[in-house]
Amino acid sequence: MTCPALLRLLAVVYGAPKYALDEASRTSHPLYSVRLAKDNMTDHQRTLRRPLLGAALTAAALGLCGISPRLLAAGKRRVSVREEEIEPGRYQNHPQTRAFIDEMVANNGFQRAELEGWFSQAVYSTTVARLIMPPTTPGKKSWRAYRSRFIEPIRINAGVRFWQQNRETLRRAEAEFGVPASVIVGIIGVETIYGRDMGNFRVLDSLSTLAFDYPDTPNREARTKLFRNQLADYLLWCRDTKTDVFSVLGSYAGAIGIPQFMPTSLREYAVDYDGDGHIDLRNSPTDAIGSVGRFLQLHGWEQGRPVVWQIANDDGSRGVAAAAADGEPWPTRTLNQLTRAGLRVDEPIDVTREGETGVLIADLPTPDQPTEYVIGLRNFYVLTRYNRSFFYALTVYQLGEAVKAAMA
Questions:
Q1: Looking at 191, 268, 354, 356, which residue is catalytic?
Q2: 264: closest CA among 223, 244, 235?
Q3: Residue 202 DSSP code
Q4: For the chain, what is the domain count?
Q5: Residue 104 maps to a domain
Q6: Which residues does the entry assign to the active site, renumbered to this chain (predicted)?
Q7: Which tens digit of pLDDT belongs to each residue from 317-368?
Q8: 302 part of the active site
């Protein structure tokens, strides 16, 4: 099969039964810069299904044509979706889209015609709208089940390989940002299994769907505002970096790259750590490592300080911990307050010297088992800036420690 024929085939497979390639974008991103030939679309084609192509298939296809693939990473929530249900043309005359375009023209100097062209090609994704919804019958939170998904041999071994392949970069980042290599390795391992689990949602479609058609939930107004801001930052980033808005793939929530940065974080914290003149969180582990380190540093990481302390497993300590576990991710108490109430720390530390240290209690429930607790310090709080979940923060830390132990 010739290269043009292969590209035409992939364009059709990716989107809908009838596509016309955008000639202006063909040379840069022939696979993802496509628009529906609406003159040939009947009413029953309004809602369509398109395959979510695997990164390996797409990279192989583009590689046959000598084109460097620009594929991005998947989201934090693990999903197995092979088809995406879409509605093309929805944002061509959508009232929310028109208002957004007005804002981007007035506030950021975009050309109206360019924005209108982009949104005429963006699609509403029913799949994205479904995945962003909370479970209809939420199950009980289980720390043990959550932890077992990430701290297991496959991910630990992948972490060892990643650390070995990027040893010097991790050492440099630790020296520059003060963040241990193990913590950076833990975050990237949880986020994308070191770039392996990378997702296939077109970011423009995901963010448009969530900015203009967020599902009807109690927090819809706040979430709509959040994703409108992310969409604005995504378009600004594309303009600043001269990136084709249709080329970027990511999670169903719009997270991008090996470390899964949302567009706002991408603009604020990402760094060109390999010094090649541009930031590429999609294909450069070096840029990803530096960007994670910088993110944590700028959120207040304390070099050389612990992430958590263990609590003694006696009834008195557990009772104090249960009473102090208020779900807040920032340190609201001092260690003195807890120890005076009867909590004992199961760590070789000078409790008197650490008495004024700000701490929090992270509760880790598992159904039908006693709830576990740990004392979180400032660095634990910083990890929750990446993801607010206590489960996430502790898993990142423990995965990094498990990989470090396997490296020994």
A1: 191
A2: 235
A3: E
A4: 1
A5: yes
A6: 191
A7: 999 999 999 999 999 999 999 999 999 999 999 999 999 999 999 999 999 9
A8: no
